[in-house]
Amino acid sequence: MHIEKQAVFGDPKAILLAISGQHHLPELLPLAVRLLAPDPRVALARIWLRRPPLESDCGRCRMAAECHHRDNCLYLVASYGHALHGQDPHWEGTNGAFRRMPLGVRKIGHIASSGETVQIDDVSTDLRWIVRPEWVRDEQIRSFFGLPLRYHNETLGVLALFSREAMEDSCREWLRMIADHLAAAIANARSLDEIERLKARLQQENEYLREEVAVASFGELVGNSPALQMISQQIDLVAPTDSSVLILGESGTGKELIARELHRRSNRSDRPLIKVNCAAVPRELYESEFFGHSKGSFTGAVRDRAGRFELADGGTLFLDEIGEIPLDLQAKLLRVLQEGELERIGEEQTRRLDVRVIAATNRNLREEAAEGRFRQDLFYRLSVFPIELAPLRERVQDIPLLAEHFLTRFARQLGRKPLKLTLANVQRLQRYAWPGNVRELQHVLERAVIISTDGKLRFNLPEERPSDRLRSAQPSNAARTDQVLSDQEVRSFEKENIRRALSASGGKVYGSGGAAERLGLKPTTLLSRMRAFGIQARP
Ligand SMILES: Nc1ncnc2c1ncn2[C@@H]1O[C@H](COP(=O)(O)OP(=O)(O)OP(=O)(O)O)[C@@H](O)[C@H]1O
Q: For the whole model, what pTM was predicted?
């Protein structure tokens, strides 16, 4: 007996109209299979779509041995039918044994890779393509019709129909037409999704960039010391690759500038460089800041939010002060770096990302890793290509150019005539040891431009070298400077030093004359250390 086309599909024209009117994949695909299987004689209608597989899926795929296309896989995305046996009378699940099919494997994979239709009128006499004959027998399946979903010469996926009756030609003609409409509707829905995604991303990037504009550092690398020239060569070497880079150096040496330069010279420069200052993220918000969250996933999560990783997709993520990341988050970070995939908090969906990571720290991360304060595996992952920035006192050749650069810049900003830098000025600047490195030099020269109203350059420089300051500031029980201090002593010294800076600045952390400036630290770094030591700005 042949089935009438009306009996199989209801009203095929209405199906075409309904499919064309649906622009959202999550609704379109279930709708299509439901519309195709209203008659109990149609056993099962299914759609598989092609997409790049998640690495984790390939790892656990039971058909991995047969798969020769690791960059593309067929995912079962919609299923509907009427089972005679089994627990799910409507076969709606998409998580069963055939949830993924490698391209080229079995009939579904063959249809997708060849773009050919597969038609089996009587499966009981043609078992070539049948994996589970007992299922065919129990469910009384008679025929199979599988069509490629083709749009603009590309096979997007497969539409498959298992039916309990043979299909007549007119019926197959309608199915071909429906498959063509469905493919066009899928392509449209994807384009719309992409537009929505890009719109949301642009909005998020704009929000982020607005925050950043206020704090963005300026200009390019200034200096001509051999040390800086070597760094520039290293940047040229590593920038075009996707390797992780770890920038090491004291506070204020220009690590962030190097990160920006790496991004600028990379192939990702037309995508954003997203920065996270790991010292400034409150502990309880780390995961959300990095990986994002869905609305309602915790108190205060009032809307869906992309994390910094997602914002950096296609671009670069700069993790400043990486040494401050708590150990438990380090494990999660490592997983994302290794697998290139993440889930937002409160969401099941796995997102695949293409992010290049640059990290920076002023700590001795190797030592921290050796002593268990930083995960060794993460350290090795991040330090594929380490770049070490020497402190300014070890590259005094850079001081004249840097000083000129800052003087010109601040004079222009303040609307003053450029100040002349004399040889004596340069020698004086070169004698000082710059514990706050280039950032301190920058502040000293900014102040100099402000106070030099008569056109003659004057600057206030602490005349003593920091080693002298260190000696005079040492707690009384930590005797000579050649004495080696224990970790505990160094910490108590640092704590005491922060207290002194705060007391000298009257409790002011930020801005000119603030404790951060006196210590040559970023205010956020100082705040995180104060938190770690339990120090209040104003006792
Ligand atoms: N070679 C350089 N040329 C021009 N400006 C520089 C140079 N090095 C550093 N600077 C400037 O000095 C300031 C401090 O640099 P940056 O923030 O990159 O240091 P950092 O090492 O990341 O500091 P921290 O460890 O405190 O985060 C910035 O304003 C930066 O623009």
A: 0.59
